[in-house]
Amino acid sequence: MLAEVLIFVPSIARFREDYLLLRLEKAQIASLALLATDGMISTELETELLANADVYNVVLWRDQIRQLILSSPVNSDISATYDLRIATPLHLMRDALVVLVDSQDHAVRVIGHPVQDAGFLIEVTMPTAPLRKAMLDYGLRVFMLSALISVVTASLLFFAVRRLLVLPIRRVVEHMALYADAPEDARRVIAPTSGVVEVREAEEALQSLQTQMTGALRQKERLAQLGSAVAKISHDLRNILTTAQLFADRIEHSVDPVVARIAPKLVGSITRAVSLCESTLAFGKAEEPSPRLSRFALGPLVEEVIEAEALGERPGVSCLVDIPAGLILRADAEQLYRVLANLMRNAMQALEATGKEGVIEVSAGETDSAWWIRVGDTGPGLPLRAREHLFTAFQGSARKGGSGLGLAIAFELVRGHGGRLELLRSDEAGTEFIIHLPKMDGLEDAGQ
């Protein structure tokens, strides 16, 4: 429609020019009829010739002589003169708009070249009302044609957009809804078929996403089944190992020197196996229970961990505790015990693996918004692979044969408190973890 509007003004100007040229041509034909009879025509015939040309009078320049060929009374003064010999496109468009806007009937003079070089120029005087009416009729026809073209174009555009865009997009949406009902079914992954480049790229991206998600879900399902099986096996194996541990304790007191020498190793192996089973069972639970918060002193809890893990009795391993005597935390004591036990046990195992003397350091403090606890050692540091998957179950173990569950469990327990467990550093000088526990939880904030 905008294009039609831009085209209409030049078009109506061209129509007006053709109309005026036709009037000049008819006036010339009328004048030639008069010249052929040497001016011997009746008044009625002259009037008929002027009415047929739709002009008031005709002036013809021939042989350097200006002749008034046909004439009739003019109802009003001449309001404007249009010389078509020198008119530019801009002048024609301006004059056409003036005629359309002015609804009054005026008399105008029009000058042009006679056809077939039948003189120097021809000049007519004519009314503007018939010209305006013809221009309005032409404009109406152009409008109707433009409306028809617009309707046809809009219809074609509608069907083209529907065929090329709407239907492919609707197909993509239907595939997304169908896939959402059963994402593990690979048959519901979309197959790109659109011929539109952009829509096909969207289909290919959706296909890649669905394929990856289906594969991930299948892997998760297999891991869940494997985890369930491992948990069941670990449960029964723990019971068997517990019984074996009781017999191993009795063997340890044997008077046989060979048995006495082998028994501690056997007891240590069984103890580690029981610990692994318990860790696997703990991680295999759907989720850890919510922490039961209470206030307690951190120092005694750390001493209890050191005593339970026999860290002070390990040859070449010493413990350095730097905790303010009056430091009181608000947390779940049992869960924090498990976190510290995992961290300190890992530190002890790292020191024992070196075969050299080392120190396990535990320090703590508080800020206005949180408590912090640091657990570090002077061991060899964590390997790069362990640091990349540090808190991922079965992948973050730093020693051969380890399960990688300890840090994963500790990370989950700290997060359950709304806190963070982070690796501060790990290099040749040792490894250091830090625990952040917030002083305010969401329930307390809501209550206040």
Keyword list:
single chain; 448 residues; alpha+beta; Helix Hairpins; Heat Shock Protein 90; 3 domains; five-stranded mixed sheet; 12 strands; disordered C terminus; HisK_dim/P_sf; ATP-binding; HisK_dim/P_dom
Structure characterization notes:
Its EC number is 2.7.13.3. It comes from Pseudorhodobacter turbinis. InterPro entries: HATPase_C_sf, HATPase_dom, His_kinase_dom, HisK_dim/P_dom, HisK_dim/P_sf, Sig_transdc_His_kin-like_C. The protein has 448 residues and is α+β, with helices and mostly antiparallel strands. The chain has 3 domains: 143 residues, no CATH class; 86 residues, Helix Hairpins (Orthogonal Bundle); 158 residues, 2-Layer Sandwich (Heat Shock Protein 90). Helix content is 56%, strand content 18%. The protein contains 11 helices and 12 strands. Strands 2-1-5-4-3 form a 5-stranded mixed β-sheet. The protein has a 5-stranded mixed β-sheet with strand order 7-9-10-12-11. The longest helix has 56 residues. The chain is rod-shaped, with a radius of gyration of 51 Å. The chain starts with a helix and ends with a helix. The C terminus is likely disordered.
